[in-house]
Design goal:
Blueprint (H helix, E strand, L loop, with lengths): L11 E6 L3 E6 L4 E5 L4 H4 L3 H5 L2 E3 L4 E4 L4 E4 H6 L3
Antiparallel strand pairs: 1-2, 2-3, 4-5, 5-6
């Protein structure tokens, strides 16, 4: 029996925040939660600045122009911070 790896390109659909975490909903139904302290610019941002994000490249990345921060969804899943 042979198994083939399925190539998956995770794409962000929506971003929300708790007091300590960023929560990213992916188009495939997964939810990724990461601590804001991993990203100092986001950790020190106001709620208004956090909620002023843009989904890039059909969901491959997230951009916050107010705090000049860009994150890739693939990096979030790898635990890159």
């Amino acid at each position: 029996m042979s198994t083939q790896a399925i190539e998956v390109h995770p794409l962000a659909q929506q971003v929300s925040f708790t007091d300590s975490d960023m929560v990213v909903a992916l188009v495939d139904g997964r939810i990724v939660s990461v601590p804001l302290v991993w990203f100092p610019r986001l950790a020190s941002a106001s709620r208004r600045q956090l909620e002023n994000y843009e989904i890039l490249a059909d969901g491959e990345g997230i951009h916050w122009s107010d705090v000049d921060e860009d994150l890739s969804v693939a990096g979030l899943l790898r635990g890159t911070h």
